[in-house]
Amino acid sequence: MTARSVTFQSKGLRLAGDLYLPPGDGPHPVVVMAGGWCYVKELVMPHYARVFVEAGIAALVFDYRCLGASEGEPRQHLDPWAQIEDYRNAISFVRTLPEIDADRVGVWGISYSGGHVLVLGALDRRIRCIVANIPVIDGWRNMRRVHGTIGFRKLRAALEDDRERRFRGEPSGAIAHSTIDYATELSSWPFPETYVTFMQLRETEAPLHEHWSTLESTELLLAYDVMPYVARIFDTPTMVIVAEEDDLTLWDLEIAAYNGIATARKELVVLPHTTHMTLYSDRSRLELAAGAARDWLVRYL
Q1: Overall pTM surpassing 0.85 (yes/no)
Q2: Helix 80-94 crosses helix 112-123 at what angle (to 10 degrees)?
Q3: What is the pLDDT of residue 134?
Q4: Average pLDDT of the residues in 140-157
Q5: For residue 48, which of 106, 122, 123 has the smallest C-alpha distance?
Q6: CA Rg, the chain, in Å?
Q7: How far apart are alpha carbons 171 and 166 in whole angstroms?
Q8: What's the rounded Cα separation, in Å, for the pair 115 and 223?
Q9: pLDDT digits (tens, 9 = 90+) for 28-84
Q10: Nearest alpha carbon to residue 32 among 122, 82, 93
């Protein structure tokens, strides 16, 4: 499977993407895909794109602003609403391509972007179907639980100090995505297996991945909540994929979000004996998630 490098504009910034096309002239249905916390387009997502392309569905995988091969400053800044805007502009872009059927556009997301696509489904009527893979649902509750009481106090203190620095005109500081020494080194997602897995992926498939973000990115995560939006997904077919043992983005919040989706055309897939990170490190688990998503996309695109 080969990809065609593409670029498109989002709020005046050039974003980079890879367009994967099935055989034939088309026009093909397409799924628009972007990643989670600190992802670049080469990280994990091409494996999903391959499964979709083999089923006859084109895939556009892109880097958000400030990440990877896309423009934007400050680097490694993750603003969820800016990322949702980038998704919407990616949809506008693929609808202009002659190889793509503009009326058959789906969205797929994983982890942070798994939450984004639920928001998108509530806001953008051009979307024909949704796949939310192990989504982030409520940033505040997520951070409070994964950091614990003492860790969350430290995190909030660091964010408050960073806000004071930004008020003085200084740039936002940096915070690790994750770290091995989670007990003493502050990170956004305090899980050693996340560090190990992402470092392996950077070595093997995603060299542009940087394992840190601005502190302001984590502050923005604390204000992120998809629950007000899921009840507005009235008639867009929506699949939510949950890892049974997901204690990173929290399986119980994911199922609560699924239960709040208004449409009757929805499906919950629970992957047994699977954690959040084994969907990255264990290809057999990834193939299960990709196969379920493929079947949903084929059915509704």
Answers
A1: yes
A2: 60
A3: 98
A4: 97
A5: 106
A6: 18
A7: 6
A8: 13
A9: 999 999 999 999 999 999 999 999 999 999 999 999 999 999 999 999 999 999 999
A10: 93
| Integer Cα distance of 113 and 249 in angstroms | 12
Residue where the block lists tokens 């379920």: 292
